[in-house]
Write a structure and sequence with these properties.
This protein has 201 residues and is mostly helical. Helix content is 64%, strand content 0%. The protein starts with a helix and ends with a helix.
Length: 201
């Protein structure tokens, strides 16, 4: 190795003495500034992505803590790492955690995955374009926590409103003439009609 390095140095020195060494063009001040802007922009994007992933893990951890207690967070993560290969440095795995955090029962889904290594391995090893569909299919089988059951159920049909108006007056039977049109003062009022009308008062 030392001999090879020394030989390379001799070759470079000989090429330089002959003017064969390619000289890198110097960057202009504008090119340098542009490079600095690109580096800063890239760094900001990486920081924003890391912050977003951190928020997703916190959201899942809070949901899991509410459902199974604080100790379940570390235990579930350990199981997923050891039995399914979960790697928080893997961008594909990070996206799965983000997708889980958006579920209404994120803690329950994370916990269920930790206890189902086959399903977790299938999800983590799947191509990115299939991961969300697999996650959704698995999540649909996981029961939501009691406090979230109502929220996930479709709204029940509203009870029809019952009118508070009094019922309509039943139609009178008989001649069809309204009783109110007959009075004891009518000229053609018979004795029977007179007694009937008086008895109703």
């Amino acid at each position: 190795m030392a001999a090879e390095r020394q030989l390379e140095e001799y070759r470079r020195a000989l090429a330089a003495s002959r003017g064969e060494e390619e000289q890198r063009p110097e960057q202009t001040s504008e090119q340098i500034r542009q490079q600095e802007r690109e580096n800063a922009s890239q760094q900001q994007a990486q920081q924003a992505e890391a912050q977003e992933f951190g928020n997703a893990t916190i959201k899942v951890a809070q949901s899991l803590t509410e459902a199974h207690g604080a100790e379940a967070v570390g235990r579930a993560t350990q199981l997923l790492s050891e039995r399914a290969g979960l790697d928080f440095a893997n961008r594909s795995h990070q996206q799965i955690i983000r997708d889980i955090s958006e579920l209404p029962n994120s803690g329950a889904v994370y916990y269920a995955l930790a206890n189902d290594p086959d399903a977790a391995s299938e999800l983590l090893d799947a191509p990115e374009r299939k991961q969300f569909a697999l996650l959704q299919k698995f999540a649909d089988k996981v029961t939501a926590p009691a406090g979230q059951t109502q929220a996930s159920q479709p709204a029940s049909r509203p009870v029809p409103a019952v009118s508070k108006a009094p019922p309509p007056v039943a139609a009178t039977s008989g001649s069809g003439r309204a009783v109110s049109s007959r009075t004891i003062y009518d000229d053609d009022c018979s004795m029977d009609d007179y007694l009937k009308l008086r008895s109703k008062k």
